[in-house]
Amino acid sequence: MEGRLFTFLGAIGGHSQEWIILSHFILSIAIVFLLARAATTKMQLVPTGAQNALEAFISGVIAMGADTMGEKNARRYLPLIGSLALVIFVSNMIGVIPGFEAPTSNINFTLSLALIVFVYYNYVGIKLNGFINYFKHFMGPMPILAPLMFPIEIISHISRIISLSFRLFGSIRGDDMFLMVLLMLVPWLLPLPGFFLLTAFGVLQAFIFSILTYVYIAGSVMMAEEDHH
Known about the structure:
The chain is 79% helix and 0% strand. It is mostly helical.
C-alpha cells in the first residue's frame, strides 16, 4: 500500500521511505521554529495569537508534569519534554493533511525518540544518585531478592523503549492507513469526521508520549529525593 501513497514532497525528491521521512521531519522542525519565532518576535504582557497558543501549551506541559514530579521539577525538564511534545504533535498533524506523511508513522523515527528518552532519564538517574546507588535500586528492598529483581528491572527498563516507540508508531501508522483508505473510498470533503478523529488521536499520542517521559524521569528524580529524606 505504501507504493500507492502520494505525497507532495515525494513528488519532488522521490518516494523512497528515507526521503519521505527525512523531508517530512525537516518540515516538522521548520514549522516548530516558525511557531517559536512567531510567538517570541513581539512578546506582549497580554499574549495574543501564536504567543498565547504556545504559552497555553507550555502551561499545559508544566501542569501535566507537576502532577508527576512537582512544579519545580516539571519546569526543570520542560525543555526536553516540551520540545518532544511539540515535535511529535506537529509531526502527527502533518500526517492528517492529505498529500503529506507523518514522520511518526515510521518505526525508525519513533525508536529514535524513545532512545532519547531512555538515555536521558537513565543519565539523570545516574547523575543524581551515582552509578552504584542508581543500579542498587534495581535490586529491590531486600538483598535476598536481588538475583530475581535485578534482571526483571533491567528487562522492564528496556521494554520502555519498545513501549514508547511501538505505541506511537502503531497508532500513527494505523491513522495514515485509515486516512488513505478513507480518501480512496469517498471524496475529500465528505470524510471530515474522520479528519477530526485522526486529529484527536494525534494529540492524544503526543500527550501519552510526554506524560510517560515525565513518569520515567520522575522515577529517577524521586529516587534521589527519597534518599535525601
